[in-house]
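User: Predict structure, ligand manganese (II) ion.
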Amino acid sequence: MTPDYQRIDELVKNATEILIVQADNPDADSLGSALALEQVIGDLGSKPLLYCAVDIPGYLHYLPGWDRVERELPSNFDASIIVDTSTLTLLEKLVTSNGIRQLAAKPCVVLDHHQTVSNDISFASITVCDPHRSSTGELIYDIATALHWPMSVSCKQHLMNAILGDTQGLSNSLATSKTYRIMADMIDSGVDRSRLEESRRAFGKMPQSIYRYKAELIKRTEFYVDGRLALVSIPQSEINDYSPLYNPAPLIQNDMLQTEGVGIGIVLKIYNDGHVTGAIRANPTFSVAAELAEHFGGGGHAYASGFKVKDSRSFEDIKMECIQQATELLSKVGK
Ligand SMILES: [Mn+2]
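Assistant: Predicted complex:
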């Protein structure tokens, strides 16, 4: 066992109230990891508190317990665990509200699996960031097993949801033989994978208005780099109208990647305050998503990444730069 694991064990067992923090872009991995830790910490006799600065999106409401995640930072806690991010860039709301000082004043553990990190959480007491893990859920399973922490069936369900989220149902290259072994162990101990899949699908269903909006996004998709780049832009008015019902990026990106010749799909969102976000997804053999996001100060995995630009440039300039960078990166791969 690594000394870091032992230090995590001590830190968790010495704290009475432990805050579990997700970044400003919650997904099935961060939420599943947070909910699994909530159970473990409770079973170890401490009090877990769940926090995320943004609302948990509707498509994640199949994870029971999502509604225990608070948007307000609690005033009392003895230690914190940040899951699924190791960059302050994705904790912007905590940074701008100064809540980050409260975290920095107490012991803090960072558990993550993202490859490249800029703007790291330098005040963390312990950072375990293992890019060979499919997901933070897989990392937590390993830590909990090594430390003999109690893992109930519902804790393992959360971890399985986390793993299935980041590996897209074990279909992408983040899933290793180790991931499959962990999945098998969890199934052996009573987790019903097909039931998890059913509830995920049920919550992923879209209202009719979103179905029609999807057609609009498909019509508006622009293709560049000989059809290897698919790109669509979403203005603030549509974010207001549709985002509360369904996140436009996942609505369209799978179809982009299922279009012949397409290597990467990008959804750019344009906000009225001038900032622009980019969600990038890539097909196997076009593993440039992280690199492209890093160019804009963002990050992620080879096949899924994101960035946020907030400066004086116009949207058109940012979009052109995105296309130019993508052209350059795509010239090196996928031939
Ligand atoms: Mn993750």
